[in-house]
Amino acid sequence: MASRSGGLVGGVIVVLSLASAGDAVACSMIALREHVIDPAELGVDVTAPEPPSATAGVSRSPGPDSAGCGKTMSTSCDGSGTIHFAITPGADDRTSAEELGYSVRLVSGTPPAGLTLPDKPLLAHGANELWVFFPDPGPDDQEPFDAVFELIAVDAAGNESAPSAPVRAEDGGDTGCAVVGSVRRHRDWPALFFALGVGTLLRRRLRRR
């Protein structure tokens, strides 16, 4: 079966390094690709894939962030929020999970302002991860949202599955300064500090060998 890799359409934020508060956090993007129909499958594959299942998570723009309402933290990812869909692909008789595309549709609710859903199906990263992006201010001025989406799988011949069960994406927003002790609350940083701590521990163990 021919490889189907369309144009680059987006990516996921990946944190690479962290300096002290007031400095910058660097990040990069993993590109996603459009799903492309395989002409060899047209008229041959006439069976639609089974519907996928999915859950959704939300990442808001990490900065600029007034850390403690006095110091500012900024990153090269500022200004972009992400809805992350974790997908369990449905079975298909001829198209592998890696080659299934996915359309994302808004079903109900209020999505984040400025969200534009892709107008073409996308290939999931690693067959099970998909991201859509929206413009997002810094954490001191982020509006809440609550929206329900559905995902439709598309096989190599363009056959579409039935929609997934509804997938809810919500976030309570973050408006104004909120301080705990001398450290500003930010829901994204604990996971980042944990990841950096694990990396440091692994490096120390490797040095001891």
Question: Residue-averaged pLDDT, rounded?
Answer: 76
Question: Would you identify the CATH architecture of the domain at 34-63 and 78-173?
Answer: Sandwich
Structural category: mainly beta
Overall geometric form: elongated
> What is the CATH C-level name of the domain at 34-63 and 78-173?
Mainly Beta
Q: How many DSSP helices?
A: 1
Tell me the total number of β-strands: 15
Please give the radius of gyration in angstroms.
20 Å
Describe the secondary-structure layout.
Elements: E1 8-18, E2 24-34, E3 53-59, E4 65-67, E5 71-75, E6 80-88, E7 101-110, E8 122-123, E9 129-135, E10 141-142, E11 145-154, E12 167-171, E13 174-175, E14 179-180, E15 183-184, H1 189-208
Parallel strand pairs: 2-5
Antiparallel strand pairs: 1-2, 2-8, 3-6, 4-5, 6-9, 7-8, 7-11, 10-13, 11-12, 14-15
State the gist of this model.
This protein is mainly beta.
